[in-house]
Amino acid sequence: MKVFITRNIPATGLQLLREAGIETTIWTDRRDLTPDELISRCKEHDALLSSGPNKIDRSFLEACKHLKVVSLLSVGYDNVDVEAAKTLGIPVGNTPGVLSGATADTAFLLMLSVSRKAFFMHKEILKGNWNFWDPTANLGIELNGKTLGILGLGKIGFELAKKCIGAYDMKVIYHNRGRNEEAEKKLGAVRVSFDELLQQSDVVSVHTALTPETTGIFDKAAFSKMKPSSIFINTARGGVHNEPDLVAALQNGMIWGAGLDVTNPEPMEPGNPLLEMPNVAILPHIGSATEETRAAMSVIAARNVIAGLKGDKLPHSVV
Ligand code: DGY
C-alpha cells in the first residue's frame, strides 16, 4: 500500500506509517501542487495525507475515487467537500484535540502582543528607532479584568479562556449555536447573542470553523458594533473576516487593534496596510506549529491512514 504526502511531516508519523509496511512518497518542493499534479500523484497511490491548502473538492474526489482514505494534517477541513466524500464513500480524517493548547497559545500571544504593540515596537527597533521613553507615546492597554468574547467556543476556545482567566481574571462570554455546558460550569462562561458578543467584549477571539454561515461574518457591520477600545483576534480561518473591512475598521477607530494568525488571502500580499499598523500583529498561520503538537498531529494523521488502508473506522474522522 502507498500513501502520497503533500508536505514533509514529523518523523514520528512517518515512522508509524513505515512500521505498518506502508510505502511513503513525500512532495518536497517548496511550492504547492497544482490540482492536476495532485490528481496525477494520487492516481499512483492508495491514500493521501494532506497538509496545507490542497482543495479536496468534488472534481478531485471523483478523479481519485480509488483512494481508500484522505487524512488531513489539520483540525480544519473547510478545504474538503464533505458531501462529495460521503457520496463517494471516501473516509476523511482530521487531527482534533492535540493542537488546542498550541493554537490557544498563539491567540494569547497575539492578544498580549497587540495590547502592548509589541510587534510594532520590535519593527521600530530594527529601523533604529529605540527612543520610546515618551510617557505619553505608544501606550498599550491592559487586559486585567476585561471581557473575552469567543466566537465558536470549542476545545481551542476553552484552552484560551482558561489562560485568560488564570492570567488576567477575564470574564468569558461566548457565541455558539448550542450551549457549551462544560465551559459554563468550569469557566463561568456566559452564552450571548452574536451582537451582544460584539458589543460587550474587550477582546473578540475567533475559534469557529469556516462555513457558509461564518464566511465574512466579521464585516463592516460587525466591526461597527464592537467597542472602539476592543481587540480582534483570529487564529481560525482568514475567510471569517472581511480584510478590507478590518483595515477600514482599524483606520477609522471602530476597533483598537487586531492580531491575525490567519489572513485572507494567505499568504498576505506584501504591501497590505495591516503590516504597517502599530496596533496590529500578524503571524503566518503558525497556530499549531510546535515540535510537540506537530508530532502529535502526525501520529493521528498516520493512524488515520493506517486504519483507512485496512478498511477500518478512522480514529478521527470528519466523514
Ligand atoms: C488546522 O489544524 O486547521 C490548522 O489551521 C492548519 O491548517
TrEMBL record:
SUPFAM superfamilies: Formate/glycerate dehydrogenase catalytic domain-like, NAD(P)-binding Rossmann-fold domains. It comes from the Bacteria. Its EC number is 1.1.1.79, 1.1.1.81. InterPro entries: D-isomer_2-hydroxyacid_DH (IPR050223), D-isomer_2_OHA_DH_cat_dom (IPR006139), D-isomer_DH_CS1 (IPR029752), D-isomer_DH_NAD-bd (IPR006140), NAD(P)-bd_dom_sf (IPR036291). One of its GO terms (cellular component) is cytosol. It catalyses: (R)-glycerate + NADP(+) = 3-hydroxypyruvate + NADPH + H(+); glycolate + NADP(+) = glyoxylate + NADPH + H(+); (R)-glycerate + NAD(+) = 3-hydroxypyruvate + NADH + H(+). Residues 109-287 form the D-isomer specific 2-hydroxyacid dehydrogenase NAD-binding domain. The keyword Oxidoreductase applies. PROSITE patterns: D_2_HYDROXYACID_DH_1 (PS00065). Residues 3-318 form the D-isomer specific 2-hydroxyacid dehydrogenase catalytic domain. Keywords: Oxidoreductase. The keyword Oxidoreductase applies. One of its GO terms (molecular function) is glyoxylate reductase (NADPH) activity. Belongs to the D-isomer specific 2-hydroxyacid dehydrogenase family. GhrB subfamily. This is Glyoxylate/hydroxypyruvate reductase B. It comes from Chitinophaga tropicalis. The lineage of its organism: Bacteria, Pseudomonadati, Bacteroidota, Chitinophagia, Chitinophagales.
